[in-house]
Structure formats: structure tokens, C-alpha cells
Amino acid sequence: MKELIIQTEELTKKYRGRCAVDHLNLEITKGDIFGFLGPNGAGKTTTIRMLLGLIQPTYGSIQIFGRDLHKDKLSILRRIGSLVEYPSYYGHLNAVDNLEAIRRIIDVPKSRIDEVLHIVSLSDESRRPVKGFSLGMKQRLGIAASLLANPDLLILDEPTNGLDPSGIHEIRELIKSLPKQYGITVLVSSHLLGEMEQMANTIGIIREGKMVFQDTIHNLSLKSTHDIELVVSEPDAALWLARDLGSRGLLHDGTLTFPGMNDPQIALLVKRLVENGHDIYRVEMKKKSLEDIFMQVIGEGSIL
User: Fold this and answer.
1) Which domain holds residue 136?
2) In CATH, what number is assigned to the domain containing residue 232?
3) Residues 17, 61 within the same domain
4) How far is CA 214 from CA 205, 218, 219, 223, 301, in A?
5) The total number of structural domains that make up the chain
6) CA 126 from centroid of its chain's CA atoms
7) Tens digit of each residue's pLDDT, the chain (304 residues)
8) Within this chain, do residues 73 and 23 fall inside the same structural domain, yes or no?
9) At what angle do helices 235-244 and 263-275 cross, to 10 degrees?
10) Global pTM exceeds 0.90
11) Which of 25, 33, 30, 23 has its CA nearest to residue 7?
């Protein structure tokens, strides 16, 4: 059984009677890149702030590294790096000097600055004033700062927000390298499934404070249903024949669409249509994209 790095039980946060996070059960295993997904306002940042001890839960428990965050907060937080929203920096200072200011506070070896700059691919830009950095470079500097203490767990809140495609690619490749090369477990939040699809092993989807899905992206796609489209010689008559067989469909622009049909149902319908003199021009399966499934989940709140 894999070691759990983060485990929450019934984690809840209420503000004036409103549930921002509602009985959240979260499990993240060691070495995983966990994509925490949901629309803006779903409760992602509130959850992250509770995991970092920045706000107290209304009730529920948080276990990190197998220990209770409430009881062992300081020792746990020493092993966590985080970047919540946008990084802070001194624009007139270069990257090395910015990291040196943090290094003195957390008391790590000075050699660690060069190490983290190498990890985030900023070694060649380390002596430039940070005010001249692109937004993507500033985000990488923020991640470098979060890595200074050599954490076992890295928590990133929407690290690609506002970046151009090149910046997004840089951050994505950096995050993907952390578990493989440095053994760091990563929790990264986003409202974009496409981004998580390219970097995360496991995802959790939160809607209105509730976890509505938690599993691999592959298993998310397996749980979806697909539509079957048929083009036949007499679509109106074919639609009624299908209804007699218990298959409800729709007719639009001469195309019959049947949601969620399995293989035996398709075979029976085609057989009956041929027996009743229909010409079958096309039978096609229309798969839902992951984006379609994601929008369905966050729109309806259905637990797959």
C-alpha cells in the first residue's frame, strides 16, 4: 500500500454559515502529482490554506506525513514548500539576492540557492534584477523559493495562472520533473483540466466545496458514456423502431443520436433496422472529451 502524504477526513470550513469546504476527504500518495481541479470559488484555495495551517478548519482533521497538523504544525510545515497565488519578490534585487533574504530566515546552506536556481532553470538569469523577469520567470523564482528548504511536499496554487503558452510549458515541465528527479510530492491546483491532463497522475475535482471525483484521469474517461450516431434511409421510422426496442434517441438534421448504448444494444438495433428494410449509411460512436466530462461534473455536481 502506498504511503499517504496528505489525508483529510470530513474537512470543513464555514464562513458565516456558508460552507466554503464541505466534508472534504482528500488522499494524496507519496511521489504523486495531484491535480486539484475546480472552477473559481469552488474551495481550492481555502483547502490549501487549511493544509498550510494559514486558517483553521471549522471541523475535520488533516494528517500530513502521517501526523496531525493541529498537534505537530511546525515540524510538518518545515517539510512543506508552497506558492499560494503570486510570488513576492524585491524587484530591484536579482534572483540570488531575493533567495538570500529567504535563506537567512529559514537557515539553510548558502549552496542551496544555486541548487534551486538550477532546478527551475534560472541559473543564467540569476544576476538580473527581478523586475525585468517575465511573469513565467517570476513564477519559477517563486517555486525556487519554495524549494529552498528541500521540502518533501510542494503545494502550488494555480501556478500557471496568467502565463502565456511558453510560460505554461516551462512551469508544467518543471512540476513534472520534481517527483522523478527529487522525490517531491506535488499538489497543484487549477481550473483547467487540459493543464492537469498533461502533468498530473491523479486528480480531485471540487465543486461548491465538495469533492465530486478523485481518481486517475484515465479512470475519469472510463466512467463517461458515449453517444452513438446513425444515419439511415428512413430516420423517422427508425426512431420509432428504436423506441420499441427500449432505446431512446433524438433525431436532428437526419442523424439519429442514442446516448449510452452498449454493444449488444447497437447490434440489435442495426439488425432490426436491416430486417425492416432500412439502409444503414453510417454508425459512429461519438466520445465525450475529457473537457466535456469535466464540465458535466462541475456543472451538475454528479459524483461519477
Assistant:
1) 90-146
2) 3.30.70
3) yes
4) 6, 11, 9, 12, 13
5) 3
6) 31
7) 789 999 999 999 999 889 999 999 999 999 999 999 988 889 999 999 999 999 999 999 999 999 999 999 999 999 999 998 778 899 999 999 999 999 999 999 999 999 999 999 999 999 999 999 998 999 999 999 999 999 999 999 999 888 888 889 999 999 999 999 999 999 999 888 888 888 999 999 999 999 999 998 888 777 666 788 999 999 999 999 999 988 888 999 999 999 878 788 889 999 999 999 999 999 998 776 667 777 767 666 554 4
8) yes
9) 120
10) no
11) 25
Residue 85 falls inside a structural domain: no
The Cβ of residue 203 has, within 10 Å, a number of other Cβ atoms equal to 23
How, if at all, do strands 27-29 and 4-15 pair?
A: antiparallel
- Which grid coordinates are listed for 209? 466545496
